[in-house]
Design goal:
By secondary structure, the protein is an alpha+beta fold. 36% of the residues lie in helices and 23% in strands. It has 2 domains: 6-89, Uridine Diphospho-n-acetylenolpyruvylglucosamine Reductase, domain 3; 96-202, CO dehydrogenase flavoprotein, C-terminal domain (Enolase-like, domain 1), CATH 3.30.390. The protein has helices at 9-17, 21-26, 29-35, 42-48, 66-69, 147-150, 155-168, 180-202, and strands at residues 52-57, 60-65, 84-89, 96-103, 113-121, 127-135, 142-144. Helix 7 packs antiparallel against helix 8 (180-202). The chain binds flavin-adenine dinucleotide.
């Protein structure tokens, strides 16, 4: 990946944690989002940062907000039959930090659960606003309302509530990746890790 603004480190997180080396070398972000696997990693990250997806066909060009792109169930999107995704535009600003954290069973696996976070932090170090989107928590990327929990606080101050709110969101099935209870617990852990990382980055850290 070339010059990535430090506010969009989330995309580096995704590309480091997705699949294995072969998949990372060959698969594309647009291909992944068009495929719309409910456990895919690019979609939640795109939704968390407020990305605009650029769609083209012989009929012309249009933009779709990532949060409106994944709809109608698993492997379903807003794309019409003759359209392809040709680009992704992402806004970013000072005081912003982003991160993606994913739990997977083994190297080339999809997310048992993943958490994409974008946060804005004041100069004084308190959170102004935050977005959390979960992977593997439903048929589409699951946006979780956390502003009330984090506003005016630090991740450590909001830790218990973040874990609780993230753990209560979404719909899970028990499968070879774990029980519903385990996945909910892990959603909370991943959400807090991403929040801490995004917060640190917003303040100039790693
Ligand atoms: C072993 C393995 C492990 C994987 N692990 C992960 C993982 O951990 N996380 C994760 O998120 N994904 C994972 N994937 C999925 C991977 O991310 C996607 O297969 C890949 O990104 C798809 O990109 P592609 O360009 O190869 O698309 P293709 O596989 O070529 O296409 C996928 C679908 O999207 C359509 N399509 C492709 N590009 C576009 C476009 N620009 N516009 C419209 N439609 C398009 C195709 O027609 C097809 O229907 C894994 C895949 C494998 C095989």
């Amino acid at each position: 990946m070339g010059e990535l603004p430090r506010q969009l480190e989330i995309f580096r997180d995704v590309s480091k944690q997705l699949g294995d080396t072969q998949v990372r070398n060959m698969g594309t972000a647009c291909g992944s989002m068009a495929h719309a696997d409910p456990a895919g990693d690019w979609g939640p990250a795109a939704v968390a940062v407020g990305a605009r997806l650029i769609v083209e066909s012989v009929d012309g060009r249009r933009e779709v907000m990532a949060r409106n792109f994944f709809k109608g169930g698993p492997f379903s999107t807003d794309l019409r039959e003759n359209e392809i995704l040709v680009g992704v535009e992402v806004p970013f600003s000072e005081g912003q930090g982003t991160a993606y954290t994913k739990l997977k069973r083994k190297t080339d696996d999809f997310a048992t659960v993943g958490a994409a976070v974008s946060v804005r932090v004041s100069r004084g170090g308190s959170i102004e606003s935050a977005t959390l989107v979960l992977a593997g928590a439903g048929e589409v990327p699951v946006a979780v309302e956390i502003n009330d929990v984090v506003k005016g606080r630090t991740p450590d101050e909001a830790a218990d509530e973040i874990k609780k709110v993230a753990g209560q969101a979404g719909e899970y099935q028990e499968d070879l990746r774990g029980s519903v209870e385990y996945k909910r617990e892990m959603a909370g852990v991943m959400a807090l890790r991403s929040l801490r990382s995004a917060y640190s980055r917003a303040r100039g850290g790693d």
